[in-house]
Amino acid sequence: MRNTAKITTAVLAAGALTLGLTACGADQDAASDTSGPLVVAASPVPHAEILNFVKDNLAEKAGLDLEVKEFTDYVTPNTATEDGSVGANYFQTQPYLDDFNKKNGTHIVSVVDVHLEPLGLYSHTVKKADELKSGATIAIPNDTVNEGRALQLLAANGLLTLKDGVGTAATPADITENPKKLTFKELEAAQTPRSLDDVDAAVVNGNYAIEADLKPAEDALVLEKAKDNPNSNLLAVKEGQEDDPRVKKLAKLLTSPEVKKFIEDTYAGSVLPSF
Hints:
Blueprint (H helix, E strand, L loop, with lengths): L1 H21 L1 H9 L5 E5 L1 H14 L1 H4 L3 E5 L5 H8 L4 E6 H11 L3 E9 L3 E3 L14 E5 L2 H13 L4 E2 L12 E3 L5 E5 L13 E4 L1 H6 L4 H4 L2 E2 L9 E6 L6 H10 L2 H11 L4 E2 L2
Parallel strand pairs: 1-2, 1-3, 6-9, 6-10
Antiparallel strand pairs: 3-12, 4-12, 4-13, 5-10, 5-11, 7-8
Main location: membrane
InterPro entries: Lipoprotein_NlpA
Membrane topology: Lipid-anchor
């Protein structure tokens, strides 16, 4: 499952990059034209919701023409940013971005950290993590960074032990102790909340948890800690576009007191400001 998913993702990414290169001249012209709207690729929740708050309440006063384009996967926003189809994206963490650039030859850079979506363990069958039975099946994201985060979350809560130093590159092969003999079902991150009726528990990214009407602050059996967490979600652009005045305006608005209050009031601890 893991290898198939990774190969599929790689093929899709390569195809998108090839298409981007085909229209390279036109895309570069669009990216360099700062007179038009800034088009930002974003996951629907909470990223697009936060951007639409900015668009509806703050952008006009700041002189920013903002257009929000929603994507439900973790590949297209980066390939679209690389080929100039969009001017920026807001959906990912720095570890994921670093891994994506390395594997796909893209040149996308962070502009500013905005928020943290704590990764959580959820279940329809148990109320506490220590109630998981021996041999329980846990669904985890199959992309490199989020799978590593999922395993680190389980390790931090005593469900397993990982090799020293593996960090977010951890895979099930790095498990050194597994007292409950847990088994893992590796799925695309978006599929993990949908798997809850078929597995004993699932580790779900915060944005997908919210979309599935889960409340991370209330429903998670265990939840990532916010303190010293390197997995803040960020605004990103193609290298060289950092000084685009539209990008600078958006970065300032996304880290404004108004957006901080919107995040705190709207998500009640399920999404946390990183500024």
